[in-house]
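hey team, just a heads up i'm posting the complex here instead of the shared drive bc the drive is being weird again. everything in one block, sequence lines first with there labels, then the predicted structure for the whole assembly after. its two chains so it's a bit long, scroll down
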Amino acid sequence: MRDVCVIGLGLIGGSVLRAAAAAGRRVWGATTAEADAEAAVVEGFDASTDVAAALRTAAERDALVVLAVPLTAIEEVLRTVGECAPSCLLTDVTSVKTGVLTAARAFAPNARFVGGHPMAGTAESGWRAGGATLFDGAAWVVCVEDDTDLAAWAEVARLALDVGAHVVPLTASTHDEAVARISHLPHLLAAVLAAVGADGGPVAMALAAGSYTDGTRVAATRPELVRAMTEGNREALLPVLDEALGRLGAMRGSLASTGGLAVSINSGHEGARALAEARQATPSGVRVTLSAPDARDGLRALGERGGRITSLTADTAIGEVR
Amino acid sequence: MRDVCVIGLGLIGGSVLRAAAAAGRRVWGATTAEADAEAAVVEGFDASTDVAAALRTAAERDALVVLAVPLTAIEEVLRTVGECAPSCLLTDVTSVKTGVLTAARAFAPNARFVGGHPMAGTAESGWRAGGATLFDGAAWVVCVEDDTDLAAWAEVARLALDVGAHVVPLTASTHDEAVARISHLPHLLAAVLAAVGADGGPVAMALAAGSYTDGTRVAATRPELVRAMTEGNREALLPVLDEALGRLGAMRGSLASTGGLAVSINSGHEGARALAEARQATPSGVRVTLSAPDARDGLRALGERGGRITSLTADTAIGEVR
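-- predicted structure starts here --
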């Protein structure tokens, strides 16, 4: 099993370090956040605040380097990768994929880069918020572009499977469009709801119950993390935000004119049912041969149909589609 | 303890019937939904589908009548109250208070009516979804208008306390404005999110994680219930919906122009903190003497400061404000 070097030891990076170690891999990490490095060392991990040294070790050992720093720090870390481990196997775990792909091509052009994004997290952050089981059963997007090296792709996919996730192969842009809908828009709507609710003062806070606490939960996330993901996905997020504005505006219009909200509320109910059905459907098996000439298309088609890969042999990705 | 007659035996009405019985009251109920009436009888309750007969019994016994029918059926039931129990002690549990107050004055003008609204519920509905503990620790708004009979008010408040809730005294219009923010807007935003998410197809559904499932949970509520509460609170909901549209539009504008979302996201984060602080604050005790000339003002002031009443003696409401 390939060694793993994790840069950034917050919620996600710290969880990758622990889960990869639990899967039997040799692991080490580095972070500029002293508190996280110290906490990792206290738990017996090889961790430091010397990012360059950790990357040089990765280059020596031909390790898989996982960038788990906030999106806003990606460029700087990629420059260090370009200097200290220029041709390493490289992935990341940030929530926007096209921007990171562009930055990797610019600042670490010789790295064997494959973008990734585990769909897991909590409103908490930092090493202490993480754990070895954070990724159990989670979707982990591992990007497939037209020029993706499938050997490198399989290395990243194998790490995701090793830590308990299932793999969803998608292009960076398909990923960004989907997460704008199901991750970035939820954060913006939660922020709107939390602000409008708080404007109602103590009465509103005293009456707030389940629909409000559920709807505002992610508004408690650290603002800089929410800003990084939403601002970093601007291009994909703008049309999705327009769609949401259009739907909310249509509600406003029909409430003010006819007073009827049937169409809007039924659409939302159908949307909720679509999620429930996607989760309850019986899966059927799918295999993609990685050495086949159209393997990239096969992987992406699987991901685009809502499928996932659950295991990987030397030349075959084994998965299911619901 | 006063007898309780519950009309409507769904989630809320069925829970009131069970909880009031558990508190030692004589209870009976009626509903036009045969399945709910049968289920209540199977569990040993005095329940039927003859609403008029149940109300006539209430008139004979001078019981407190609780209307727990959907908002869209309130007028019809109020007419029956006007015929069969014209001067009864009367309350309701629907989520909009000004409309019901107007209807009660029109169709049961001699009833001693005091509006109520327990802030409890689930996405499920019907007798089987309820239970005797549904109201434990929940806020139960009991309305205080300028002409409210405080003896009748205390009877309704005592029922709310008996079933485990705490009482929030507010005018109908203050209630409606607050629930537009913390209950009706959350349902509309959940519907928008569920529709925009589902528009992303199978990929979006496969990647949906916590922020999406939390944000769309109440979109699974029966559409007719969501329509009844939102359409029924049109006057209070429209300006709240405009505030949400304004905030979402401002996000769209700043993302498109400067690309920065700091102001919007920080406002949401502060809103989330306002809720957490309201819940963690140390309460201080408050008492309102019900026979005092300004008792109505005292009760409403308590509610408007986010306070609640936790017990009631013959002439004193004892509560706390955070």
